[in-house]
Amino acid sequence: QVQVAESGGGLVQAGNSLRLSCAASGRTSVIYAMGWFRQIPGKEREFVSAISWIGGNTIYADNVKGRFIISRDNADNTVHLQMNNLNPDDTGLYYCAAGRSQLSIEQYSKAHWFNFWGQGTQVTVSA
Fold this sequence. Notes:
By secondary structure, the protein is mostly beta strands. It is 0% helix and 50% strand. The chain contains no helices and eleven strands. It has strands at residues 2-7, 10-13, 18-26, 33-39, 46-52, 58-60, 68-73, 78-83, 92-99, 116-117, 121-126. Strands 2, 4, 5, 6, 9, 10 and 11 form a seven-stranded mixed beta sheet that branches. A hairpin with a 5-residue loop joins strand 5 and strand 6 (58-60). It is globular, with a radius of gyration of 13 Å. The chain starts with a strand and ends with a strand.
C-alpha cells in the first residue's frame, strides 16, 4: 500500500502563486507516476498535471500549461505543484494521486489509472 498526503493549500488573491506538496509513504517502490487533480462541488474531478517517477516526464492540462509546474523529489518521495498566476477558475479541492502501472505519461491524464489518492487540500483564489 501507498499513502499520499497533500499540503500547501490556502486562500490567495488572483495573480498570486501557491505551492502544493504531496508526500508519498509506504511501498513507494511501486510508484510509476504521480499526479494532481482538482474538483469543485457539482463537477467531475479534473486532471491538472502528472509526472513519471523515474524519467520525470510531465503532462499538463491545457488550462494550466505555462502557469503550473510539477516536479518530484525522489529522495523524499515528494511531488510539488508550483501554481503561478492563479485565477478564480483554479479554485478547488486539489487531490494528489499515485499510480503503479507502467503507462505513458499521457495515459496518466485519466483518473482511473491512479491507485492511491490523498484526502485533498483546498485552494481558493479570490478575484
